[in-house]
Design a protein that fits this description.
Ald_DH_CS_CYS, Aldehyde dehydrogenase, Aldehyde_DH_NAD(P), binds NADPH dihydro-nicotinamide-adenine-dinucleotide phosphate, seven-stranded mixed beta sheet, single chain, 23 strands, oxidoreductase, alpha/beta, Aldehyde Dehydrogenase, Chain A, domain 2, Ald_DH/histidinol_DH, Aldehyde Dehydrogenase, Chain A, domain 1
């Protein structure tokens, strides 16, 4: 019996990875599967290209990256169509994703010199005879492993910053979105055709594992927490530094003085955009008792209006067919434990689609509250006050983003969320703010992409001291005398002993 191919599930045919649309099964592209030797050869070519790219300096790289940015902007519709065909994402969502990515390319290109370039830093009195110099030098070759859910925005969050910092990059796109990954590489090669500064290797998870073991100087991984652990273990063998951007279970808190219409709009969009397949998607809401019922009504009204389907709909298919079982399990578990579906429910899963589902009063120990669902579902639970909401929001091992709606206490509440990011009176907006770092805590990973921290993540600090005068208190020499040491003690007591 021949196995039936489920649309969207990648297959390997004659050594090629065949990518198909989860909605229609149409082929999006086929790409040679890399062997371990191929991965090593690609990394070797990237290593040879790295000094040339670094040698262009901040100005040369900025000019190339800005040309790439312009090309992405000019061909945004072409790329959005590819994202739509390969992953099923609605065109409008794809456009928003690409715009955000373009913004990051622009910012990284324009700010790399300011953030990473050589500068003098202040000397301290104890070593006043030395000047201090700091710069951030590229690692060399960075391996970027990306997920499928934001196949442009997510890799670019690492790729653009790593390139701006002067590294060459080898990208391993998800097996579900190789065509988009290859498109990014090909368009970059149109503006940088001299050397393979950005290249791709395709295949399944083992290709990602081979990239971790290939001798790259840093790995930037975005994907699930479980795979992140494997990536870290593989990188540990060679002490390769690693950045982990992993999963989440982000919460929104709706306080008593919130604008409920705005909160409902943000909750629905934050939970259901990209069919809920968003690492920073809102998966849980904690609404305080006095506004709970009104808020739920508004969410149901808005979410109930959304259309589901292949083309022109608000919500597209679930990209990874196996995720449908997870979504179904979470809904079933929530209902079995006493939660109520005020929209959608057990019948909402209709492969490859899931209709918007809003679950209320879901027990805190159920899978729908504790595990990443990655589908167009939302739990809304009632809480006494914002303090209880913070406690529940912080109860999980994930800590990626979060959102708070309210007036008086909203920023204070946002600061108390155990997460790398939060948005007040909006949802997910921190992801598009290229001046801000992006990343999580706990099971959501560590390290930062975006912003100044994101640039520094792809460079190593190089510290240089330079003598500018004779030492008045010679301490770091065997020529020092007892009197020198005694004077040193006296000075330190004077400076710090009070
Ligand atoms: P996976 O963890 O399944 O895969 C991520 C990438 O790792 C893919 O390219 C995958 O390749 C590769 N991979 C798989 N096994 C290995 C291995 N042993 N060694 C090295 N690489 C490997 O995640 P998904 O692609 O399913 O993405 C969804 C997850 O990503 C969600 O948990 C989501 O929250 C998270 N995410 C986090 C973001 C963040 O910034 N924090 C942003 C976006 C998503 P292949 O696809 O071929 O298996």
């Amino acid at each position: 019996m021949t196995a039936v191919h489920v649309p969207g599930t990648p297959i390997i045919e004659d050594g090629r990875l065949v990518s198909t649309s989860p909605a229609t099964g149409a082929e999006a592209g086929r790409f040679p599967v890399a062997s371990v030797a191929d991965v090593e050869a690609t990394v070797a070519r990237a290593r040879a290209a790295a000094p040339w790219w670094a040698g262009l300096g901040f100005t040369g790289r900025r000019e190339r990256l800005l040309r790439w940015r312009a090309l992405l902007a000019k061909r945004i519709e072409e790329l959005a169509e590819l994202v739509h065909v390969e992953g099923g994402k609605p065109i409008a969502d794809a456009i928003v994703e690409i715009v955000t990515a373009i913004e990051h390319v622009d910012w990284a290109a324009r700010n790399a010199r300011r953030v990473l370039g050589p500068r003098r830093v202040r000397s301290r009195l104890v070593l006043a005879e030395f000047s201090a110099h700091l710069e951030y030098q590229p690692h060399g070759v960075v391996g970027v492993i990306g997920p499928w859910n934001y196949p442009v925005f997510t890799p670019i969050g690492s790729v653009a910053y790593a390139l701006a910092a002067g590294n060459s990059v080898v990208l391993k796109p998800s097996e579900y979105t190789p065509a988009v990954g290859q498109w990014l590489v090909d368009t970059f090669a149109e503006v940088v055709d001299e050397q393979p500064v950005l290249s791709a290797v395709h295949g399944l998870g083992d290709v990602g594992a081979a990239l971790c073991r290939s001798g790259v100087d840093k790995v930037a991984f975005t994907g699930s927490t479980a795979t992140g652990r494997k990536v870290m273990a593989a990188c540990a063998e060679s002490l390769t530094p690693v950045l982990i951007e992993a999963g989440g279970k982000d919460a929104m808190i709706v306080d008593a003085d919130a604008d409920l219409d705005a909160a409902a709009d943000a909750a629905v969009w934050g939970a259901l955009t990209n069919a809920g397949q968003t690492c920073i998607g809102i998966e849980r809401v904690y609404a305080v008792e006095p506004v709970f019922d009104a808020f739920v009504d508004k969410v149901v009204q808005r979410a109930g209006r959304l259309t589901v389907g292949a083309d022109g709909a608000d919500i597209g298919p679930i990209t990874m067919p196996s995720q449908l079982d997870v979504i179904r399990r979470h809904i079933d578990d929530a209902l079995a434990r006493g939660g109520r579906a005020v929209l959608g429910g057990a019948e909402a899963v209709q492969p490859p689609y899931v209709r918007p589902t809003v679950l209320v009063d879901v027990p805190e120990d159920s899978a729908a509250v504790r595990e990443e669902t990655f589908g167009p579902t939302l739990t809304i639970n009632r809480v006494r006050d914002a303090d209880e909401a913070v406690t529940l929001a912080n109860a999980l091992s994930y800590g990626l983003g979060g959102s708070v709606f309210g007036r008086r206490r909203a920023v204070a509440v946002a600061r108390r969320l155990r997460s790398g990011m939060a948005s007040v009176n909006s949802a997910l907006t921190f992801a598009g703010m290229s001046t801000l770092p992006f990343g999580g805590v706990g099971d959501s990973g560590f390290g930062r992409i975006h912003g100044e921290d994101g640039l520094r993540e792809f460079a190593r600090a190089k510290a240089i001291t330079r003598r500018r005068a004779r030492s008045l208190l010679p301490a770091m020499t065997f020529d020092r005398t007892d009197a020198d040491v005694a004077r040193l003690v006296k000075v330190v007591r004077m400076m710090y002993g009070r």
